[in-house]
Amino acid sequence: xxxxxxxxxxxxxxxxxxxxxxxxxxxxxxxxxxxxxxxxxxxxxxxxxxxxxxxxxxxxxxxxxxxxxxxxxxxxxxxxxxxxxxxxxxxxxxxxxxxxxxxxxxxxxxxxxxxxxxxxxxxxx
Length: 125
What we know:
Blueprint: H1 2-9, E1 11-12, E2 15-16, H2 17-36, H3 42-50, H4 54-60, H5 66-72, H6 79-95, H7 98-104, H8 109-117
Antiparallel strand pairs: 1-2
């Protein structure tokens, strides 16, 4: 008990040493974890910076506002997006046969190749 009291009395500016050591341990653990983490690519940095939490935050906090959604986000397609829907998406629909897709539960290899080649699975950054 005597040494515990001595440790508590050993203070700097009136605070117990334990408060200082916690910061030291936390900083050391952070530096160790930082060295273990893989380096982030430039694409990953850009992708993380592109995200928003605006309306998602509203939904998950239980207070979504349709007015806020309409005021904040534009529901209009860009010229490039409209062209993609009018051309690539329309051409893909012509490649597909609903009956065949429903029965096979899969697209044809040609449809998969078309979607891969035309950027249907890509995220533009």
